Amino acid sequence: MINKGNLNIFLSLLIILLALVSCNGGGSTDNNMVGCVSSTGDNTVTLIWNLSTIDIDDLAGYKVYYGKESDNYSEIKKVDIAICQVNEGIPKCTYTVNLSSGRWYFAVTAYDTFGNESNYSNVVCKDI
After folding, report:
1. What is the gyration radius of the CA atoms in the chain, in angstroms?
2. Rounded CA gap, 12 and 122, in Å?
3. 35 DSSP β-pair partners
4. What's the sign of the alpha-carbon dihedral 8, 12, 13, 18?
5. How many CA atoms lie within 13 A of 58 on its CB side?
6. Which phi and psi (to 5°) does residue 21 adopt?
7. What is the number of other CB atoms lying within 10 angstroms of the CB of residue 119?
8. Which H or E run contains 17?
9. In terms of Cα–Cα distance, which of 80, 93, 110 is closest to 51?
10. How far apart, in whole angstroms, are the C-alpha atoms of residue 118 and residue 10?
11. Minimal CA–CA distance to 49: which of 8, 95, 7, 80?
């Protein structure tokens, strides 16, 4: 079973990487908001994060939550750990989605083979 303390530490580190990739580290006044970025003419959002370096044998995958309101997500998509791949020697997970215009908020959780799920990560967003 996943140690939830270790999983939460892992997710905090994961979301720092996620924010830097998906939102270029932009600022926000929302306390749980890591960053937001605008795009021009592209409705695609790609979130990329490194897999845990913490030994979590029971990690099954991640859930990507997103919607047009922070902390009120209309979509939930599972990213199975089996589809994560090694890129330049680093195991990474990727989730890509095409979205309609507007501001979209994203958060990620990790879940284990027993169905336990971590808390939400920090929120990142993208204006489309």
Report:
1. 14
2. 7
3. 124
4. positive
5. 14
6. -80, -45
7. 12
8. helix 4-22
9. 93
10. 10
11. 95
* Total tally of structural domains belonging to the chain: 1
Indicate which CATH number applies to the domain containing 68.
2.60.40.10
Residue type, 61: G
Ramachandran area for residue 89 (φ above 0: left; ψ -120 to 50: alpha; else beta): left
pLDDT in tens, 68-97: 998 789 999 999 888 888 777 778 888 999
- The whole-model pTM stands at 0.71
- Cα 24 from chain centre: 14
C-alpha distances (whole Å) from 16 to each of 7, 43, 44, 50, 123 are 14, 23, 20, 10, 10
Place of tokens 């370096």: 53
At residue 125, what is the residue type?
A: C
123-127 and 33-38: which strand pairing?
parallel
For the stretch 7-52, pLDDT in tens is: 444 444 444 344 434 443 333 334 455 667 766 667 888 888 877 6
Instruction: Give Cα separations from 105 to 15, 47, 95, 110, 126 (angstroms).
Output: 13, 12, 14, 17, 7
What is the domain range of residue 116?
4-127
